[in-house]
Structure to design on (700 residues):
DNA sequence: TGTTGGCACTCGAAAGCGGTGAGTGCTAAT
DNA sequence: ATTAGCACTCACCGCTTTCGAGTGCCAACA
């Protein structure tokens, strides 16, 4: 069911106009704004057809047409051409990302911030998926009797730590010995291959009494497992209130309510990433429109994400959430640029 | 200009009714709901008086009265009696705070969460003011050539760390020696007494070449200074949208916009704390109502904070932001209870 | 077969309008 | 100082009217 050329143009024009004006667009105004070489009656016929095919719909009988989710989908998949950013825009983004920050987490946060600023939407980032990164160092520092700090240094330059409880009577020297033994045996292992058993066997050849060992090893293990937990960072939620699309208090509340459940959002982003990966994605971005999003209250939103990389095995996501009535071309090109800059900067860190 | 007894009762009744119904309250309905032993005409006179004194005002000529900021102020300062929580409420709060968490930051976060849940408002917490805490340990861990991790252990059981850049050719042993020297000299010092000079002189008696030293010391110093920077955590912003008081999109946007600037909010909380401290506060809570709040868009809110303590010298704040048309008594008693529980749990940690 | 002008029809948005009722201030009597 | 009474105000509700952009359909045309 291919659309003929003019129908494509019509759909494209409807999306463009609707995005620009937030008014349902009618056959007359289409003729005025774009120079189709046909009459409004002809367009009316085309529009009726497009509606039958599910690309557009009318809010009520006597109004213009509005793109449906499917219409937007067609638009982003084959109608729009991605535009390039002006030099000034590029500079602005670059200035914000390539700052003085040289910790990966800070860098990612600054990219997220820039993304929200430049698009005016909600932006988000997922922490890097560290499962596949490997342990470069693990140190257990005695803080005081009964309390220690486990410090993990991972490939890709990430450092994680966790305060843990340990048996009171463990001495400083025992701890150093133990820490060394664990490190020697786990060094170079990817996080997802480390199990409690691995950790326990790593400390076999120390002569520390077993009952003391047990707890420390378990805590070290939890510290490692905690390191590869995903977390999400969201920014600019309030900006959604600026869009007429959410001027109904109810919608706005649902939306912000859902976004406040960061675990849920994180899960969804993760799902998107997995789907894209398993379907052999070709694009540099992933996109979900309106009802395609399974999160409550995001029916009027679009969700666009991209993947950043830290080294060969570690990656994460950045993304934006905006009204589905958005200028997809601009947003995507902006996100793409932010992503590329972020990747460049991350590479410098390693 | 003291209010006579009945006028006090009238003001109190107006606040109570208005909080409960969100409708301007008139003389007739006052008579109905409360049993004043006088006629509505008498109350009208009293109300006219109260209005002249600035405690109440009318939204428009032919409507009932609404408390002014000054009215609320009078109410919280001398009219309301703080009620006690039911056993069930106490249990609910206790269950949420005294969890398995045993890191101070986590504990504070969980208290903040509970606060938002139980009040239905925005809640917030400030990180502990660590200026007065003293250094228990400082370790500099070599991560890889050119990169190290500075780990600070502070009194009150707080651990902070920061990744820093160091000269490439600094060896592991040099680092250990240096780290030891710094620690020996700085141990026990309150953070706010540590200056760059202190740090530099702490490393005098190592035989490491000066140019190498300089950068490390500077980085150690910045790590220390960074540790006592204040940060704020906000939760439940979206809940504000549930209140009819912010049903105008414009107000809601202003409010959430302001709250999203966490630096600004943190500054304000800090200011509140300082004012309270310097004026010899008596209450266990601080409160700002409506226009008293100097943040933009919070004219219809009240801001209530309390202070939590970690050890003798370190403290921070928790608080809530809700519509100024709130049940002050309940909110205050809840916050007070959360604070007490939090303090108990924090004490266990040290 | 695709295109066009014409026309009756639809329906939301905006504007106008009168009634209702809770509330007020004022005054004169208690 | 308190009260009953009364005229007045004004937001709110529901109703009707008008307006106009937009539609679907039809008959005519290339």
């Amino acid at each position: 069911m291919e659309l003929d050329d003019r129908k494509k143009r019509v759909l494209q024009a409807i999306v463009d106009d609707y995005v620009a004006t937030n008014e349902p667009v009618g056959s007359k105004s289409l003729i005025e704004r774009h120079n189709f070489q046909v009459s409004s009656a002809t367009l009316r016929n085309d529009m009726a057809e497009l509606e039958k095919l599910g690309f557009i719909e009318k809010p009520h009988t006597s109004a213009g047409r509005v793109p449906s989710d499917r219409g937007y989908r067609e638009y982003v998949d084959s109608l729009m051409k991605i535009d390039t950013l002006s030099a000034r825009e590029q500079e602005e983004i670059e200035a914000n990302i390539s700052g003085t920050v040289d910790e990966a987490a800070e860098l990612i946060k600054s990219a997220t911030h820039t993304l929200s600023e430049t698009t005016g939407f909600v932006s988000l980032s997922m922490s890097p998926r560290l499962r596949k990164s490997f342990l470069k160092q693990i140190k257990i520092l005695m803080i005081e009797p009964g309390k220690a700090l486990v410090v993990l240094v991972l490939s890709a330059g990430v450092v994680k730590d966790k305060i843990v409880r340990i048996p009171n009577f463990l001495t400083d020297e025992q701890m150093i010995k133990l820490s060394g033994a664990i490190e020697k045996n786990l060094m170079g292992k990817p996080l997802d291959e480390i199990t409690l058993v691995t950790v326990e066997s790593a400390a076999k050849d120390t002569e520390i009494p077993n009952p003391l060992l047990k707890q420390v090893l378990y805590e070290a293990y939890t510290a490692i497992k905690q390191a590869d937990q995903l977390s999400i960072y969201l920014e600019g939620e309030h900006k959604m209130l600026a869009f007429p699309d959410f001027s109904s208090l109810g919608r706005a509340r649902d939306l912000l309510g859902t976004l406040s459940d960061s675990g849920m959002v994180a899960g969804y982003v993760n799902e998107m990433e997995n789907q894209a990966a398993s379907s052999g994605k070709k694009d540099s971005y992933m996109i979900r429109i309106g009802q395609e999003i399974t999160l409550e209250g995001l029916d009027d939103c679009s969700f666009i994400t991209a993947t950043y990389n830290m080294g060969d095995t570690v990656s994460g996501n950045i993304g934006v959430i905006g009204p589905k009535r958005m200028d997809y071309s601009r947003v995507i090109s902006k996100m793409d640029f932010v992503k590329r800059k972020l990747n460049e900067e991350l590479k410098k860190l390693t």
